[in-house]
Design brief:
This protein is α+β, with helices and mostly antiparallel strands. The chain is about 30% helix and about 30% strand. The chain starts with 5 loop residues before the first strand and ends with a helix.
Length: about 350
């Protein structure tokens, strides 16, 4: 398709082929709608595919917990049941946060263990960093690339078209339709959904659309060749520290480095300082000094709708931004996108 050719046979255009974009396209296609996904990268190596893909069923927010359960079932229905690897999760917190979290855990039927119980149950881990922890024996993780390819295949079976390596250059409205211009042509559809994660504010600004999204960058690290065997999935309520094994035997861990509203090219480089801080957190759970053969640092990204109602009303008609910003979109993307589509198009 040349720069002057037009493709107009679509109901919806989805910008972004990460997990949120693929889940969105799949839900729309299941409604028998014609969908095209436009992705600026020729190979997707975004937050979706480099994430830890950890799945914890306990969350202080009951809505998030419900969406994680629904999303886990969704992935299993795609034929990914065997890809799920069990890894018990411990959501740790101090005495100050105990009252609310004890009540929330009790409502879900999960056990809350004291430090003494934790030490007796998992003696190979040190637990001085927490007073209590919610034990989630059903937690675990998936391989994000396997999941991404399964979603892609499911979309293709339903006739979703994909355009990889196509950067969106302009957004226009004409005759009641939305139009996206790329370097290879013009795409016309009833509506447009942006599922571009961290890059959303920059893209909206470049297209002359209201910037209804904030971005946040979180730095995570991966240890290879480590001596911390049998590590469960650990999350600290107060600090946000998290650590767990991955499908390839590494340990993924980090302490939130929250850079709000910073352009991608202007992110500060705090790799050494941030790594040392995260390693200090991880060491508190290790019974012996940590040893490892290598470490690599990556940035995960969140995009938050600044105000939900504002995000819906400020954008042009039939134009939506899927920015959920709860971290680890992998665990709840299927349910969260479906809920938004149902609220927009009707269930």
């Amino acid at each position: 398709m040349s720069s002057r050719e037009v493709s107009s046979g679509y109901d919806w255009l989805v910008v972004g082929a990460g997990l949120v974009g693929l889940c969105t396209a799949l839900h729309l296609a299941r409604r028998k709608l014609r969908v095209c996904v436009i992705e600026q990268m020729s190979q997707v190596t975004n937050a979706s595919t480099v994430s830890g893909a950890g799945i914890r069923f306990f969350d202080p927010d009951p809505v998030v917990s419900a969406q994680v359960i629904q999303s886990h079932d969704f992935y299993s229905e795609l034929g990914l049941a065997d890809d799920f690897r069990s890894c018990p999760s411990y959501y740790g917190f101090g005495a100050a946060a105990a009252e609310g979290l004890l009540e929330r855990a009790s409502a879900t039927g999960l056990r809350v263990l004291s430090r003494a119980h934790l030490q007796a149950r998992r003696p190979h881990i040190q637990w001085e960093a927490v007073d209590y922890a919610v034990e989630d024996e059903h937690a675990g993780f998936r391989d994000p690339l396997i999941t991404w390819h399964a979603l892609l295949a499911a979309c293709e079976r339903l006739g979703v078209n994909f355009r990889f390596g196509h950067q969106v250059l302009a957004f226009e409205e004409n005759a009641g339709a939305r139009q996206l211009l790329t370097q290879v042509g013009r795409y016309v559809a009833h509506g447009v959904i942006f599922a571009t994660g961290y890059w959303t504010p920059n893209l909206l600004e470049r297209l002359g659309l209201p910037v209804v999204v904030r971005n946040r960058t979180v730095t995570v690290h991966r240890l290879a060749g480590h001596n911390l065997a049998c590590l469960p999935f650990i999350v600290e309520h107060d600090s946000g520290f998290h650590a767990r094994p991955t499908a390839c035997g590494e340990i993924l861990f980090g302490v939130p480095q929250l850079d709000w509203d910073v352009a991608p090219d202007n992110l500060p480089d705090r790799t050494d300082a941030h790594l040392n801080k995260a390693l200090a957190h991880l060491q508190r759970y290790a019974p012996v000094p940590l040893l490892f053969s290598g470490v690599r640092t990556t940035r995960a990204a969140d995009a938050f709708a600044s105000v939900a109602l504002e995000a819906k009303t400020a954008l042009p008609e039939h134009t939506h931004v899927f920015a959920f910003g709860e971290g680890a979109a992998f665990k709840y993307a299927p349910a969260r996108t479906l809920a938004y589509i149902n609220s927009t198009l009707g269930s």
